[in-house]
Structures are given as C-alpha cells and as structure tokens.
Amino acid sequence: QLTARQSVPIQSLGLPSYYWGTNAIHGMQNVECLANGQCPTSFPAPCSLSASFNMSLVYDMGNVIGKEMRAYYNAKVHNSLDTWSPTININRDPRWGRNVESPGEDPFVCGAYGTAYTQGLQQYNGTQDIVQAVVTLKHFFAYSIENYDHVTRHSVDVKVSAYDLANTYLPAWETLVKKGKALGIMCSYNAVNGLPTCGNPAMNKTLREDWGFEGYMTSDSDSCANIEQGHPDGNGGPPRPMNATQATKECLMGGTDIDSGHTYLGNIFDAVTDGEVDESYARTALRNTYKMRMLMGLFDPTKDNAYKHISTDVVGCDAHQQMSLNAARKGMVLLKQGPLPLKKGQQIAVIGRSVNNMKSMTGMLFEQLDSIDLARAPLLMGLNGDEFRRLLRPTVLLLNRGCRPGLHHSCLCSSCWQFDLQETMMDHCVRREIRVFRLLLKPSIAPTPVEQCRHWNGLATPPKLRLLPAHPTPLCWC
Q: Using the 8-state DSSP alphabet, how is residue 194 labeled?
C-alpha cells in the first residue's frame, strides 16, 4: 500500500487497487485513447504557457486535466486520480532535458504557474470535503541535472547556499503549499548539501510544520534505492545507509510516504516486524496516503458528489480543444528575424518524434526535436551526398541541437527499413539511432535484406544560415 505505481487491492478490507502518478505535464499521459477514438486534450508545453504570462490559461488546463482524469476513473478505464505534475523546478542549465516541463527560470513565475495548475486541477482551497483530483509537485528540490561528465541525478550531491535556497529554489514550493494547497509532492533523486531529498527530516519539517503541508510525499522512481548504495557520493558528509533496510528507515523518517519502486515493497514489513523501523513511521505514511484517497471520495461509494457524474463525453471535447488552441495562440512568439514569411512553394522539414505519433501529442515526455520527419524518410534512401544537399537546399530546417553544422551519414542497417544517423560530435551533442520506415511499401512486404540495401556516405552540408535567426551556438543539422 506504500508502493507506487500500483497499490494492490486488499479484498478482505474492501480496498480497491489504485495507480499512483498519472503524468500530466500538459495533458494526460500513461493512458490510451478511449475505445471510441476520443483522446485526452493536449495543451501546449509549460514553457509556452508561461510565456503567455496568462495564468488563467494554466488554471483552465489544470481543470481540464482533472475533469478528464475523473472521466477515465468513472468509466473504470484508468484507476488514478493523482497527477505526477506539475514540474516547478527552476531552469538553470539549458542542457537539462526537462526544461520544457518547467515554466522557466524565475521562482515567481514557477510559483504562479504551479498555483494556477494546482487550483484548477484539485478544485480545493482547504475547506472542501472532496477534491476533483490531486497534484504531485516535482521534483523536490534543487533538481536540474541528468548525466554530465559521469555525474548523474542518481548520485549528485548539489551544493546550494542558504541564500540560494531561500531566494531561488524554495519560494515556488512554499507558494504552492500555502496558497495553492497542493496535496502531493515528489522528492527527487539528488542530495542537497549532504542529505538525500527523500531522506531529509529537516525539510519534511519545513514542509509540514512551517508551511502547513497536509498531503502525501512520493519518491521519484525509486529514489530510496539511491540511498541504499550510500547516496550521496563523495566524502565529508554523515554516514550513509548501506543496505535496503536502512534506506527504508531513512526514507520513512524523512517523510517519504510512497516509494515508487521496490525498496519499501521488499523491506518494510521485515524492518517493522524486526523493530528496525518504528511502526509509527509506517502508520504515518499510510495515514498521509489514504487521506488523499479519502479526499477524492474513493471510499464513499454510496455518497454522491459532483465529480462522480463526469462522463467520458468531456474527454477531448470541442470546448477543451478550443481552450488548448487558445492557449497555443497566446503562447506563440513570432521572431522579427526568422524563416517567416515563407516563400511560395518553399518546403519545411518538420522534425521530431511527435510528427507521426498521436500518443506523443497527448502529453508524453519525449523531446520534441530529435529525429527526421518520417513523412520525408523515403526520399532519404539511396541518395548520395550531392543529391541529399540538393534535397535540403530549398528546405527550411527547424532544429535545436548544439553541434557544428553538417552530418556524416552512414547506412549501417540490418535492412533498408532503418539506418543509423551519426552526428558530427561536439561537447554535448548526442548520437541517436533514427528509424526510417519505407512508407511506400505495403506492411505485408518484408524488409529488403541487408545485402540489397543501398549504402551511401557523404557530408550533408546544410543551406546557408541566412534563413534562420541568429543563434548563440552552432546548429546541428539532421
């Protein structure tokens, strides 16, 4: 019952199963479209919404997500009513792959954005008996790193001054708890000043006693397992637990109610039974988590409330789609110098995994710009360098990678259905495999064997940069 994402049912007590953590950064993730083809509404990414400086748009998005989650729950399609969103981390490093999830680098804007999202989704000001759904703010706290020079989010110990904590990293969280009445928080993978965020009693005290937090806290996908191996890395800090039982104890004592992983699942029962972990901590965790489910009205099957009547008719309905369109229009910024207006007949290469993937458009977390437009993929098969350059010359490419212009191409495919695209590397340019499908063939036709695959090599030189706005770093061309 303290394990995410799926809490199993307890039939003898009449407790239903429950799924913790539907990602909903700008629309419901973790779900399929309904059987009739209706899909959850997808809004613009948070970085676009915050650029509008219109937080009523964010409130509307939160409310739409909450309603559509209720519709899925009422229809018994998805057994979850809490989101693992919004992300309110401060953008401090442009290399961070999740900057798009955050409202930006300003603590005030992050607090205002998160408050609007939370109030819209939860429909809760601290006095209601029933909430529409529950947010889970992430990632608490001082978190904006993935994997740089062998330093990972799982092992990094972030050093932050007291001033920077108070002035930059914590204001949005305080606003969200006090004003937004957020009912969920996710602790992050990293440590801060020697203590893992999921095992920090002092910060838990700040949340609950100083700010009045009344909700539950979950780990990120097994943040508690990081502690088991002596997290954080480095010397000079307090002794770190070196086994799963001690990690379980530290997470519970640090205020982590739900473990999204296997640390609690494999150790909490024996730890409490053997007296290594005080049972009161486990009871507190259960109280905090079940309080959320009670506020959702999940244990009152005979008691009516307005949210029980939300049907799947609202999922992706015209009104919600219009809200999303309005938000997109309000967040757009047209550069004075750029590729627009386009010349008549000019081609555009649309770049990104989302181009031909409807599921990605409903709120997935994938990067938006990192692959070749699949609709143009057949044109890239069997071309030499000169032909490829001629293909690119009339095309405006909209890309965003920090590499030097020009790519070296090599067909290393096991069939003509896919090949590796190797980028000319610079500091933080990433090599990716791009799967190119031969869309002109019927699905029943088998891939061409590798012996018959037409290989080509060459340096694809992009057109001059005169059509693109000034950019502080070189662009990477695909």
A: T
- What pLDDT does residue 233 have? 57
pLDDT in tens, 380-437: 334 444 544 444 433 333 333 333 333 333 322 222 222 223 322 222 222 222 222 2
- The model carries a pTM of 0.74
The label of the residue with tokens 């429909």 reads 123
Helix, strand or coil, per DSSP, at residue 458: strand
Q: Tell me how far apart the alpha carbons of residues 72 and 50 are, in angstroms, rounded to a whole number.
A: 28
Three-state SS for 27?
A: coil
pLDDT digits (tens, 9 = 90+) for 286-332: 999 999 999 999 888 778 899 999 999 999 999 999 999 999 999 88
* Predicted local confidence at residue 118, as pLDDT: 98
Distance (Å) of CA 389 to CA 50, 79, 344, 380: 38, 51, 21, 11
CB atoms within 10 A of CB 9: 14
- State whether the Cα torsion 216-220-221-226 is positive or negative: negative
Distance (Å, rounded) from C-alpha 247 to C-alpha 101? 29
DSSP strand pairing (407-410 vs 419-423):
antiparallel
Q: Which residues are annotated as catalytic?
A: 220
Does residue 21 come out as left (phi exceeding 0), alpha (psi in the -120 to 50 range) or beta?
left
- Distance of alpha carbon 350 from its chain centroid, rounded? 23
CA distance 207 to 228: 24
Count H helices and E strands in the chain, helices first: 12, 18
Close Cβ partners of 277 (under 8 Å, ≥ 6 residues apart): 245, 248, 249, 252, 268, 271
Interaxial angle between packed helices 171-178 and 107-122, expressed in degrees from 0 to 180 and rounded to the nearest 10: 30
Residues of the chain with pLDDT under 70: 232-242, 335, 337, 351-478
Beta bridge partners of 187: 140, 219
- What DSSP designation does 138 have? E
